[in-house]
């Protein structure tokens, strides 16, 4: 049996073809994963995944793709082409079914497939469809379900039996990602979940020789991610805090240069920013209270509180793309319904703290001309 489909891939989403689907515990997946740059097979056998099979590196394919998968006996072949270059992988199935269903799989985003065609081993079409209606609309009678609209297969009440939920966030730490986490937490709470959330590996990498991303870009990415996950009441951490035996881009320390007398481990910018942020956030927990900004640009903002609510913390930054040079703007910050006694501005990159001029307007506190940067500016507020 052979399966062909056209796909549009603009955002690096994972997509592929499911073959010989017997049930959710037994099928073969031919997968193109741009986020890790490989073409590969997966086998689902009696409810367990086999390791990544026959992986082939893929780089720089265009967004308009043709996917083709074929199985004859125990031999499986998967090809992806952008019209200029074709990449393929072949795998001998460990356990295969004589018959089963066929489908398409897509990790994220709106439906992007078209020209779906299934043929037998003699090339005769068994089924074909374009998946598009007039002017690109969804065909009558079809509904594409994805993202927040997808039905949750976990029954209510099961969440109470789970202690922790974690993931490796490959998403950029911006408003879209943090809002998605908020929606997920609401869904989990509705299922009875009362445990903890973990961002088990927040990833940003920089290595030598210097390139992209730079040390500064890596540090900005990490402090944004740490601030946002802390503001969502989540624990977050790196997979590889340090390496001294070989260079690794995720390390918070620079590449080691061994000599006869010692092997130095030199911290990077991200290490110092991470250490300072740990001090700034010590014993603070997420808390909601009203804050407004005079800036026309929409800022990303998280609010915290500690102790007996006499001390609060506010973090805000410009949601712009990472750059080596810091972008910033001045704006007024209004703490609604708060009569603050003192406020300090904190810079997590150089570890400095500066007391700010506090202005009161009725029951509000107004801080004029606060410098907001493209990494979190923190305000520590004492009521």
Quick gist of this model?
By secondary structure, the chain is mainly β.
* Spatial separation of the terminal alpha carbons: 70 Å
Question: What is the fold named in CATH at topology level of the largest domain?
Answer: Jelly Rolls
Listing every helix as H and every strand as E from the N terminus to the C terminus, the arrangement reads: EEEEEEEEEEEEEHEHEHEEEEEEEEEE
| Integer count of domains | 3
The CATH architecture of the largest domain would be Sandwich
Mean pLDDT equals: 82
What percent of residues adopt helix (DSSP H or I)?
10-25%
How many helices? The count is 3
Radius of gyration based on Cα positions: 26 Å
Beta fraction of the residues? 35-45%
Residue windows where pLDDT falls under 50 for at least 5 positions: none
CATH class of the largest domain: Mainly Beta
Strand segment tally: 25
Strands of the widest sheet, in order across it, are 9-8-7-1-11-12
**Which structural class matches the secondary elements?**
mainly beta
Specify the biggest β-sheet.
Answer: 6 strands, antiparallel
Overall morphology: globular
């Amino acid at each position: 049996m052979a399966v062909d489909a056209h796909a549009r891939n603009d955002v690096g989403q994972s997509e592929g073809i499911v073959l010989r689907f017997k049930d959710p515990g037994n099928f073969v997946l031919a997968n193109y994963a741009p986020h890790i740059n490989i073409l590969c097979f997966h086998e689902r056998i009696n409810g367990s995944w086999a390791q990544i099979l026959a992986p082939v590196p893929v780089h720089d394919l265009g967004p308009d793709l043709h996917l083709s998968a074929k199985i004859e006996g125990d031999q499986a072949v998967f090809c992806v082409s952008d019209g200029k270059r074709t990449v393929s992988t072949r795998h001998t199935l460990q356990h295969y079914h004589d018959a089963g269903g066929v489908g398409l799989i897509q990790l994220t985003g709106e439906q992007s497939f078209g020209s779906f065609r299934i043929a037998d081993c003699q090339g005769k079409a068994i089924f074909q469809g374009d998946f598009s209606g007039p002017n690109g609309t969804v065909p009558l009678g079809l509904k594409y379900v994805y993202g927040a609209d997808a039905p949750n297969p976990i029954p209510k009440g099961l969440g109470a039996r789970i202690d922790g939920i974690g993931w490796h966030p490959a998403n950029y730490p911006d408003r879209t990602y943090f809002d998605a986490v908020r929606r997920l937490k609401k869904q989990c709470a509705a299922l009875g979940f009362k445990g903890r959330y973990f961002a088990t590996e927040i990833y940003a990498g920089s290595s030598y020789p210097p390139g992209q991303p730079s040390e500064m870009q890596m540090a900005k990415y990490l402090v944004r991610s740490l601030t946002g996950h802390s503001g969502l009441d989540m624990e977050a951490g790196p997979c590889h805090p340090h390496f001294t035996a070989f260079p690794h881009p995720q390390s918070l320390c620079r590449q080691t240069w061994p000599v006869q007398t010692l092997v130095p481990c030199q911290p990077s910018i991200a290490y110092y920013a991470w250490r300072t942020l740990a001090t700034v956030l010590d014993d603070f927990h997420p808390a909601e209270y009203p804050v407004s900004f005079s800036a026309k640009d929409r800022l990303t903002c998280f609010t915290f509180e500690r102790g007996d609510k006499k001390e609060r913390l506010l973090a805000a930054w410009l949601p712009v793309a990472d750059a080596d040079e810091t972008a910033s703007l001045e704006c007024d910050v209004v703490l609604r319904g708060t009569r603050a006694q003192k406020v300090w501005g904190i810079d997590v990159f150089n570890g400095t703290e500066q007391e700010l001029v506090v202005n009161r307007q009725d029951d509000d506190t107004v801080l004029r001309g606060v410098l907001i940067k493209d990494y979190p500016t923190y305000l520590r507020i004492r009521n």
